[in-house]
């Protein structure tokens, strides 16, 4: 059982996702330096969120799964001064991630009146996601043992259709297994993910479904084929109230100039 963190209510949470850092500090995606964009977003978080009780980092922290990239992510985000939890995405390698930050890769965190469940949906060598049997067991045990705590469940891959035809095949392939479990537990208030490099916010069956912009390049919403937008990188904030209410919003780095090079190697 995790040792609970005990901040005052509401619990202040920030989500960062899809940083895609390289071992090389000069590494870019479509000409955008991913360390520079993450640093800019972190700086904005620091200015806008004076109190952070928990930082959730929901996958694709690295582009090349290198020790150097994870160390850089940890160093850049440590300036926020908040306890953090990481989970892997399809570009990550869980073993290397654990070499750098094993204590941050925890499946269950109790904080205030809430239980945060971090699931690994990455499949080695694949872009799509799948919750393996051991992860479903983790989820079942976390939810059945939550007692009176409200639950926020996190993974990397999207579990619902977001209207982007090209990204649908690389979502969570056993999403029905996940959603069936979530609907069985009234304690579950929200499901939070990354991967889609865009904002998503809807309510289904009383559960809030949330996704968050990348800290680097953004994917264009409602696109049939792979397409990026020139929207700025961003992050999500959440206020988790003791009565189970959740407030949340996305902030973008409006003063960050996005300059993309479509002739450079793609995503």
TrEMBL record:
Superkingdom as given in the UniProt entry: Bacteria
Pfam families: Metallophos
Residues annotated as domain Calcineurin-like phosphoesterase: 12-198
Molecular-function annotations in GO: 3',5'-cyclic-AMP phosphodiesterase activity; metal ion binding
The EC number(s) this enzyme carries: 3.1.4.53
Keywords for this protein: Hydrolase, Iron, Metal-binding
Similarity remark: Belongs to the cyclic nucleotide phosphodiesterase class-III family.
Listed name of the protein: 3',5'-cyclic-AMP phosphodiesterase
Designated gene of the protein: cpdA
